[in-house]
Design a protein that fits this description.
Number of strands: 7
Oligomer: single chain
Structural class: alpha/beta
Radius of gyration: 17 Å
Shape: globular
Number of helices: 9
CATH architecture: 3-Layer(aba) Sandwich
Largest sheet: 7 strands, parallel
CATH topology: Rossmann fold
Order of helices and strands: EHEHEHEHEHHEHHHE
Bound molecules: NADP nicotinamide-adenine-dinucleotide phosphate
Length: 240
Amino acid sequence: MNMLGKIALVTGATRGIGKAIAGRLKAAGAELVVTGRDQALLQAWEDQGALAIRADVTQVQEVNDLIEATIRHFGQLDVVVNNAGVTQDGLLMRMSDADWNKVLATNLTGVFHVCRAAIRPMLKQRQGKIVNISSVIGVIGNPGQTNYAASKAGVIGFSKALAKEVAGRNILVNVVAPGYIESEMTRALTEEQRHKIVQMIPLGRTGQGDDVASLVHFLVSEANGYITGQTIHCDGGLVI
Ligand SMILES: NC(=O)c1ccc[n+]([C@@H]2O[C@H](COP(=O)([O-])OP(=O)(O)OC[C@H]3O[C@@H](n4cnc5c(N)ncnc54)[C@H](OP(=O)(O)O)[C@@H]3O)[C@@H](O)[C@H]2O)c1
């Protein structure tokens, strides 16, 4: 699972799960390209030797520029982890167009923007690994999260189609669907909501960013040569 000589792009790497994934790939020897919108947090990555580029995944030009800058700097792109994501919860009857559009634009259209730009160099290289971060909510649903569930289910369908499209060029596309992972996104829940969720998790505890990072690391490493188009849950058994 050595990543020496591999160029890996992680979106939404400024915090939470994305930060853990980027840290894991860097520790395994990968050269990192990290994105997000928080300039101060990106600077911290640059100080650690990563190529840190501010890019909003909803903005097609910013994403195209990001991939161009990566190729200009490193000459190749081997791994892409689409992790950037947001929630904007609310019951459907009261959900505004803005709340719907923001979540779809970030979680689904953002993945489309990044994959479309990134597969061009990968097709030329005749190799590449893509992992898109979905969520168990995209599989089982959740009241108050119709927008989020739709976006994350969309990522699963999108990834299966893309996996078939690019398999002939040895590009593997998989999805990781985390359950309840400690991060700023889940910190918004009340202690009571948190307690209820933990009761539903067979392993009896919430997950950490590193739990997701280990799985992503395996999927994008040379250890994985034959898994593509799959959605793997990292959820302590929540979905079984
Ligand atoms: N935590 C969980 O329990 C859980 C469960 C299932 C799935 N997930 C998924 O895992 C991923 C990471 O979640 P997290 O819990 O680590 O969330 P988080 O702590 O809120 O971090 C989200 C990351 O996404 C970035 N981001 C958001 N909008 C962006 C945009 N438009 N363009 C570029 N970057 C953007 C943020 O960076 P900036 O603020 O710097 O832009 C940040 O680095 C998400 O896709 C989420 O849906 C999380």
